[in-house]
Design a protein that fits this description.
alpha+beta, Deoxyribonuclease I, Chain A, 2 domains, 31% helix
């Protein structure tokens, strides 16, 4: 038992340190994803070490837990909405439905429950595209890129987009949907993304860099949502937010999680929504599970200065 606790604390020390090296290389990014879980395991190890009278391990485990907490602490305080009660509000829902999930009949009730103005569907397969075609008379299909794998995309909305395009960032990256709307004569761009996991290699970092480089062409009022396959405190996500001038709307909600829907113990926030200046968050939460390993991301975004 003593040896087991020592090995556990040692391993957690290694992954804790490795997580800080994600600024050096994308290779280390996976080590930063489960910092909350490291904290739980380290406190459990500290209790075991205390029972076994291994005082040095108690101190080490508590110190390492504190380091991991400090790494995510900046996400404890979120920016407050500055929206007027008369500013128009859009409900954005971004949902990775999971290509292997076949509960197509649950999409229509979900849309009726969440009442989105813009709905982005990630991992859109032929089955999910067929379900989305008739899921709502209010939220209508606007553009689908259907794939049998994990990188199909679909966009539905109440208002008809002024323009809609499918692009790749970079050229060998997955498809990204870009929809441009006019809300009370105010141009607004919505971008739906599905970034590769860091376990897929450098493509994850290259996708974020390429999308950030395209920021000037996407308009001043911008909403980017989807499955980023990384956490808010990862260096690559922070760099993307900083270089684009976008704000993570779930900042301050680090204890919430969007994946996996089947385990609170493993829960991490992999789905994100970022907004530009001129927009404000009225409400944010995750919707119910309908068989996917992700929860739907739900954000109410106010467009400032367009009240009539």
């Amino acid at each position: 038992m003593r040896r087991g606790v020592t090995v556990l604390v040692g391993l957690l020390a290694v992954v804790t340190a490795a997580g800080f090296l994600d600024r050096v290389s994308w290779v280390f990014e996976p080590a930063t994803v489960f910092r909350l879980q490291y904290v739980v395991l380290l406190f459990a190890a500290a209790l075991l070490a205390l029972a076994l009278r291994q005082r040095y391990l108690v101190v080490a485990a508590v110190a390492l837990a504190g380091i991991n907490i400090a790494a995510i602490a900046p996400w404890q305080d979120g920016a407050r909405s500055a929206a007027s009660s008369t500013d128009p509000t859009l409900r954005i829902v971004a949902f990775n439905v999971k290509s292997g999930n076949h509960r197509y009949d649950q999409l229509a009730p979900l849309i009726a429950r969440l009442q989105p103005d813009i709905l982005g569907l990630v991992e859109l397969t032929p089955g999910w595209a067929h379900a989305a075609d008739t899921a709502s008379s209010r939220v209508r299909p606007r553009g689908f890129v259907v794939q049998r794998g994990a990188y199909g995309m679909g966009l539905l909305s109440v208002a008809t987009p002024a323009a809609l395009s499918a692009r790749h960032f970079p050229a060998d990256g997955p498809v990204v949907l870009i929809a441009r709307f006019n809300i009370r004569d105010h141009p607004l761009t919505f971008v739906l993304v599905h970034v590769h996991t860091p376990f897929a290699g450098s493509v994850h970092e290259r996708e974020l860099r390429a999308l950030a480089a395209a920021r000037p062409s996407l308009g001043s009022s911008l909403i980017v949502c989807g499955d980023f396959n990384t956490v808010s405190w990862a260096a690559q996500f922070q760099d993307f937010s900083r270089s684009t001038g976008l704000t993570d709307v779930f900042r301050g909600a680090w204890h919430g999680y969007s994946w996996p829907s089947w385990s609170r113990l493993l829960g991490v926030p992999l789905d994100h929504c970022l907004i530009s200046s001129g927009l404000a968050v009225r409400e944010r939460h995750f919707g119910p599970s309908i068989g996917s390993d992700h929860f739907p991301l739900v954000v109410d975004v106010a467009i400032l200065g367009t009240a009539t």
